[in-house]
Design brief:
By secondary structure, this protein is mostly helical. Helix content is about 50%, strand content about 5%. The chain has helices at about 5-20, 60-80, 80-85, 90-100, 115-120, 125-130, 140-155, 165-180, 210-220, and strands at about 25-30, 35-40, 185, 195. It is globular.
Length: about 220
């Protein structure tokens, strides 16, 4: 069971997801708030110095800088016990959200109270319902990003056979339902994705099949 390869694959999938919305640039540019930005949404370097117009970095530095900022943005939420019990794709969606809104969102009280409570409860359905609330008044780019994250939260991740214990349980109990296109429910690391028959006492998530606009985006998370 090659856990290292699996972790690298998931890390690359997340980088691809964030870059899908942030863009990826080796030359510095001005973002929507006219702040010099480089790589995948980076406005500073590891030492805290700001990005300046005229800066240029290699693809390797793009990846290094992204990893640094992603680790910093998600450190607090990754340490939350509720986050740790979420399915892999829900964790990826929350990491994308944290990279976008900042590392301290769980400490910002009522501003992010709805999604914080959903994460702490390890509730993918509640997280999916909360994400669209944070689109900065309906900015088109954020509306699309929150919608993609919302759909991803409830999408079972079908890793290769021999991947993780969580997905071993997913395959053992939930995969037939997933492959048939049936609605499934995340039962935590102990149970994985369950069919309605196996989880008939819990309200299943909405039956949400990505439309054509999202097919390419979700291909990396199959």
């Amino acid at each position: 069971m090659d856990y290292s390869a699996l972790k690298r694959k998931r890390a690359q999938d997340l980088a691809d997801m964030v870059a899908h919305f942030e863009g990826e640039h080796q030359d510095a540019y001005l973002d929507s708030e006219l702040i010099p930005t480089i790589g995948i949404g980076a406005t500073t370097y590891e030492d805290g110095s700001p990005v300046e117009m005229g800066d240029n970095i290699t693809k390797q530095r793009v990846d290094e800088l992204f990893k640094f900022h992603l680790d910093r943005a998600t450190e607090k939420v990754r340490n939350d016990p509720g986050f740790q019990k979420l399915p892999p794709n829900a964790q990826a969606a929350i990491k994308s959200f944290a990279f976008n809104v900042g590392p301290n969102f769980m400490e910002r009280g009522d501003d992010f109270g709805t999604i914080t409570r959903a994460i702490q409860a390890s509730d993918p359905q509640a997280i999916a319902e909360a994400l669209p609330l944070y689109n900065n008044g309906g900015l088109p780019g954020l509306v699309r990003r929150r919608e993609a994250e919302r759909r991803l939260v409830l999408r079972p991740r079908m890793d290769e056979v021999g991947s993780t214990l969580a997905n071993d349980r997913t395959r053992a109990f939930g995969t037939p339902a997933v492959l048939k296109g049936e609605t499934v429910k995340w039962g935590g690391p102990e149970y994985g994705w369950q069919s309605p028959e196996s989880f008939n006492l819990i309200k299943p998530p909405i039956d949400d099949v990505p439309d054509r606009e999202y097919k390419k985006f979700f291909a990396m998370f199959k």
